[in-house]
Amino acid sequence: xxxxxxxxxxxxxxxxxxxxxxxxxxxxxxxxxxxxxxxxxxxxxxxxxxxxxxxxxxxxxxxxxxxxxxxxxxxxxxxxxxxxxxxxxxxxxxxxxxxxxxxxxxxxxxxxxxxxxxxxxxxxxxxxxxxxxxxxxxxxxxxxxxxxxxxxxxxxxxxxxxxxxxxxxxxxxxxxxxxxxxxxxxxxxxxxxxxxxxxxxxxxxxxxxxxxxxxxxxxxxxxxxxxxxxxxxxxxxxxxxxxxxxxxxxxxxxxxxxxxxxxxxxxxxx
Length: 270
Fold this sequence. Notes:
The chain is of the alpha/beta class. The protein has helices at residues 20-30, 49-58, 74-88, 103-107, 115-136, 163-183, 208-218, 227-238, and strands spanning 8-12, 34-39, 66-68, 91-96, 140-150, 188-194, 249-252. The chain contains eight helices and seven strands, in the order βαβαβαβααβαβααβ. The chain is globular, with a radius of gyration of 18 Å.
């Protein structure tokens, strides 16, 4: 029997088979979890690219719930959780892997972010966790857990991360407040902060190859992490193995986040 045998969950935000959410999903499935999934609504119903991409990944896992969800629409969220309740009754965990900033606001200096871009970025990247958690609380089984994904750019300045770093800072504080409010119900919520991994979202962050080289040179383990390592940690945080862990932001970055200066053996450009 696996750690998640007999347990059910919801996964919001798998972008593709290179995403962190997918890596976590695979580990959850390996441990026996049954999951429902959401995808972005397709702009053209006649060509459901988002749905097709997700179905290709999750139908082999035996997913009974695959549905669209626009987290900016309360009606969509209400429908998804109603479908989840009808399909599974209760769920044991929820994975939130949702973040977005308009490219014109993300690429420019943070101070140049537009009012509309700031509102959109915070709504999708941060408020979505709040409103999703409120609904999830109604169907989470005792001892249930939630997990969201963040990045070091929410704690320190990462050039190129810009307004998304501000969103991640807000997301991490939200996790702490939600941990306080959910704890009395025996529900846990945590954040996972992964080191740089080549995903769709990482393509928007500056010179990504240079970042990989920096991490592997400066991190205590002198290497980058793998998506499998991040997937295992996400599975752990959602499992009963982490039953005493809540309000935590757990770094999986080979220790990079602890460094305040380059190590003595690091080769620096003249």
